[in-house]
Amino acid sequence: MFDPGWNPLHGVPSYPAERYGVLADRIGGILQSRSDILLVQAEAVVALEAVAASLARPGLSALNIVTSPYGGWFGQWLRRGGATVRDIVAEPGLPIVIEAVAGALDADPGIDVLAVVHAESASGILNPLSEILALARDRGIATVVDAVASVGGHSLDVDHLGIDIAVIGPQKALGGPAGLSALSVSRRAWNMILSDGAPRDSILSLADLEAWLDNGRWALPGTPAPLEFFALEAALDRIEAEGLENLVARHALAASATRAGLAALGTPAWVPAARASNLVTAVPAPVGLAPVALIAAAGRLGVELTEGVGTAPARLLRLNHTGQRAAFQTVLANVVAYGAALRQAGHSCDIAAASEAISATYSR
Amino acid sequence: MFDPGWNPLHGVPSYPAERYGVLADRIGGILQSRSDILLVQAEAVVALEAVAASLARPGLSALNIVTSPYGGWFGQWLRRGGATVRDIVAEPGLPIVIEAVAGALDADPGIDVLAVVHAESASGILNPLSEILALARDRGIATVVDAVASVGGHSLDVDHLGIDIAVIGPQKALGGPAGLSALSVSRRAWNMILSDGAPRDSILSLADLEAWLDNGRWALPGTPAPLEFFALEAALDRIEAEGLENLVARHALAASATRAGLAALGTPAWVPAARASNLVTAVPAPVGLAPVALIAAAGRLGVELTEGVGTAPARLLRLNHTGQRAAFQTVLANVVAYGAALRQAGHSCDIAAASEAISATYSR
Amino acid sequence: MFDPGWNPLHGVPSYPAERYGVLADRIGGILQSRSDILLVQAEAVVALEAVAASLARPGLSALNIVTSPYGGWFGQWLRRGGATVRDIVAEPGLPIVIEAVAGALDADPGIDVLAVVHAESASGILNPLSEILALARDRGIATVVDAVASVGGHSLDVDHLGIDIAVIGPQKALGGPAGLSALSVSRRAWNMILSDGAPRDSILSLADLEAWLDNGRWALPGTPAPLEFFALEAALDRIEAEGLENLVARHALAASATRAGLAALGTPAWVPAARASNLVTAVPAPVGLAPVALIAAAGRLGVELTEGVGTAPARLLRLNHTGQRAAFQTVLANVVAYGAALRQAGHSCDIAAASEAISATYSR
Amino acid sequence: MFDPGWNPLHGVPSYPAERYGVLADRIGGILQSRSDILLVQAEAVVALEAVAASLARPGLSALNIVTSPYGGWFGQWLRRGGATVRDIVAEPGLPIVIEAVAGALDADPGIDVLAVVHAESASGILNPLSEILALARDRGIATVVDAVASVGGHSLDVDHLGIDIAVIGPQKALGGPAGLSALSVSRRAWNMILSDGAPRDSILSLADLEAWLDNGRWALPGTPAPLEFFALEAALDRIEAEGLENLVARHALAASATRAGLAALGTPAWVPAARASNLVTAVPAPVGLAPVALIAAAGRLGVELTEGVGTAPARLLRLNHTGQRAAFQTVLANVVAYGAALRQAGHSCDIAAASEAISATYSR
């Protein structure tokens, strides 16, 4: 007989109902927001779809900034619900240009909602969030920010910035579980969601989640997933011990060292620092070299590089320095392994200088 | 500074992509099915909504058997997608009567799909699944079975019974995690789902999941939740070590001992054995006694009884003997604590005889 | 290739050195002692052997109270180190009689150390600890108390009682790990240990452990076992959340209900309540029935009874209500399963009355 | 009230008795030995002390090779038991010279036992094990090998080499728990241990452990520590999945790359490759630089270097590449961080060349 042994994942107890409220408060702390915090028991892409499904209805007009496939889907979900959506699409793999946003807003004074992704892990870019939000604020437009990748890696002061809905997931810079997500919902956003026609009785209904808020406990159909909630607590414990500012600073240092290393290697990062995310750094493979082959060569050293995805140009590679990877050891291994892969492909590069630059950045 | 200590839930590695196929095969074993097995990274209620959303379209005609709120929602989701749905609703807290199903099918020869819940944990009843499926088979009607509560507690031979879509969750009799679910999809069901008009790019799209099947790995947007997949493996390890038939037999014994105990106590179970589930046993509180007070009294002994929910009559209490609770110790504690609660409320009952009956059932 | 999957026990990080001191303080809280607290990285039997090896030397005279094999070994270890030891042995399976202790002390005014086990899990008895300690206090004799089984199940106020060395393990009533143990050492005990001839450089040397105290961190050869220390923290978290007094009261209630149940069953416990431990209850099997057969019959119900061990009379069975087992559900299952086993062996007993008695005890 | 939450280390079940035999067999596979395998529930230093205590008695003559404090203690423990011991001590931080061993054996034909440490993690050296064992074999002398640090990092074929007692711990190259250890005992060694005068009833008695072998299950006093045994299973699962030869090769590669990196940095390793262990690499700090300051500088990059310990020269630093650290990423970070620390202290070194050399070694 196959004997399974003991596994700590056996017999996990139910998550105590009275702790959902505490969890929500702790997430409010991460977001620096006094808005309502909703927990969604599914990956963050579901929370995003739920936001779109819950806001969308005929008569709603939205400006949707697209810098990755997620942005594209968001527009599609809004349209599915009957909304009128204008997508403005950035250059492939680049952040949106603030003038394009201003122009689009000026062109259509009837816009009710603006949606934008804060940082894209698909291409390593950062959108000019505070400038975009300022434009929306001036015009009284509600805002939806996809902060799934950015939360913990960039500062995100939801109330100060005036974000109506911010969606986050714990699985990236926060280093937590991937099976749940959370969002903040302002009073203005609730008014839009709860006006006539709100979908109900669906995983995509934020209106359903309001019941949860009312009694301070989980009130939805289906069984709560205890592993996800306990793992979220564990992640919050770590974040609170490290300090949110220190967590962001650690990601900024990793990004800065990665960029310094790549520059010294002779293959500078894809976008300038001001437009780059702190979570992954994209670098264009030299002409004539296939990213897949470079990734395979790095993989033989035990270092995981990945291709850019979505709308990013095909020759981008990504060096990941998110969460536990925002550390000297990983940053160094990423860059040196990339250099070794280039060498092996016959492309000269200065591994030496790259190591120096990374050490120097971290030693400052 | 708050020091979080070590928590085994920190830094869980990614789930290896090549193991999704293995997981699916193991679930196929549980379902005794060679149909395609899809994994959904959300609680089973989402898989049910996805089934309805993926099947529903104008022109589809469905007969929907309602024995709990889940059944009610299923009809609603089908209607939302444009389908024509006839609900047949059982008496509160009781299984559907087979004649009602036959009559409804005879009355409308254009029905394409029949949907039914196998066992209801809300009221502890079991629908006459094989008889219902036989009626559908004779008429060439596709079938959707919600086996979320029943899988592992009752035998469920998907291919032999001719079920087109069976939806399960690991969190009940299988004793596993709640943050994912699975379903089997027959060729006929795929044809219905993939015909023109299939929704795409949504958590509710089964058509999206077909891509997953094609390359044998996770291919959906969003990050896979490793804890859920590793915990599902742990549950399958245990089930395979115990044996699926032994697992079902253990639930049947727990149900039988609970019923014998309640009868001896002087408060027989709500439905006769042939119509009862193996997972929870519902019992009507004696007239004049509030279920809530009895539950509180049992709770003081550390024993958790619950109220019936949904369409079940308000005076039902439930004794849970699902998963790890399908054991002598829990069955005995449930019934004796219920007896002690009755006593405390001034209602006479025979705790003695109940204990005897449970011991005798388990000692046979 | 065999694929091991993820196991949370992989890659456990080192235990942070600065937390040993915190751990020791928390254990001091459990023992209500300001003595030095030493952590020993081995099961508590090793801590006991180390105490004997560290105290013993030619010229030391000890009175050793023997109520189980552990007591016997303790005397042997003292003798091995050169001490003169007088064992006083209780009746098999019974606590020591206080008059015997007084008599032995009176007979030999040169005794330096008195050693006694607080509660015996081998036979379920409790020695009259405070009376014994009073006798030693009056005579200025140092005392060693084996509180491995009793800690958490009985109150143990080390400083108030004037215990010089108390040895505990976390694996019984405290519900913690078994791979480490702890002891409190008074100033007087240190003086005895550190006087000329103290063994050094050995797992059995308490003098070595003093180095640990001096710098507040682990200072011994060998690698600290992180799992044990993290698991001890987890146990202390639970104990502090429940409250030490509540933990002791929970064990007292379990013992009391077990005894009431056995009495009602018609097979009273082995020793009267005043001489019984709160951790396990021993009961003599009726004449003519083999304990092993009764244990096997209970085992078929999934209930684990055990034989008495060591010096306990051969016909004793033990019902365990220690740690998580100190709960209504386990107490009830233990007694009813024992009753069912008696019945099956043809011995009449009143399972009914036993269940009643247990419910009544817990409902008070 | 402080709420401890759920911790997977709560409520760990007992280790099933029937699995000790399986564990022992799996360890026999690691050691490539058909000798009896004993499990000791304590860190490996206790197993070593037990070996000495169990072998030692008046009349026994031992040659004890000392290349670290552990070797020194081993001689002391043998002497404590009455044996006559000749220590031969290597130069500080260096392996023993084979001629010294031969000379000592020739000088005293009455030697019964030879003891040696295979690899020293205190100084990163490797003793010439097979040559030493050949000398003993020729003379019919029993051998004790401390393989605690080396097992998994170097090949160790116990039966082929003719080792009588090999002591191992899972906590180094095997990547397992530190709270237990194991040893192989040949028939000849048993004869020595069990001859008249064997200590009994002690953590230091191997004779006690024979009882364990006789009934194939744990038979010692005290509670088995389930966490340690389950964690050992997890480690063995990983090792068997990787393959013992691959595990050794991975350590050899890490050592080789570390040495190449240090040489290119301009600060070659302490001992030549043939005399170096695969587990840690020691390097002498340049004259005038304090190891402690260099360690602190590397620590600011998140890289942990350590001082040499024991008999190693005071200016040695150690780079650890044991277990999970036997990987490109850690080797690279170790060497570059050491280089950065040298730079910061004003000592020039070629970080560039070091990175190159490490990449080149791993890319071969």
What labels describe this entry?
homotetramer, alpha/beta, Aspartate Aminotransferase, domain 2, Aspartate Aminotransferase, domain 1, 2 domains, 3-stranded antiparallel β-sheet, 13 helices, 14% strand, PyrdxlP-dep_Trfase_major (chains A, B, C, D), pyridoxal phosphate (chains A, B, C, D), Aspartate aminotransferase (chains A, B, C, D), PyrdxlP-dep_Trfase_small (chains A, B, C, D)
Structural class of chain A: alpha/beta
Instruction: Please name the CATH architecture of the largest domain in chain A.
Output: 3-Layer(aba) Sandwich
- Mean pLDDT value of chain A: 93
Oligomer: homotetramer
- Radius of gyration of chain A equals 22 Å
**Pair with the biggest interface:** A-B, 52 and 52 residues
Helix content of chain A: 40-55%
Terminal Cα separation of chain A, in Å?
59 Å
Q: In percent terms, what proportion of residues of chain A is strand?
A: 5-15%
Sequence of secondary-structure elements of chain A: HEHEHEHEEEHEHEEHHHHEHEEHH
Shape of chain A: globular
**Biggest sheet record of chain A:** 7 strands, mixed
Question: What is the CATH third-level topology name of the largest domain in chain A?
Answer: Aspartate Aminotransferase, domain 2
Number of DSSP strand runs of chain A: 12
Return the CATH class of the largest domain in chain A. Alpha Beta
Strand order of the largest sheet of chain A: 1-9-8-7-4-2-3
The number of helical elements of chain A comes to: 13
**CATH H-level name of the largest domain in chain A... which superfamily?**
Type I PLP-dependent aspartate aminotransferase-like (Major domain)
Protein name (chains A, B, C, D): Aspartate aminotransferase
Organism (chains A, B, C, D): Rhizobium hidalgonense
Domain Aminotransferase class V (chains A, B, C, D): 36-291
Keywords (chains A, B, C, D): Aminotransferase, Pyridoxal phosphate, Transferase
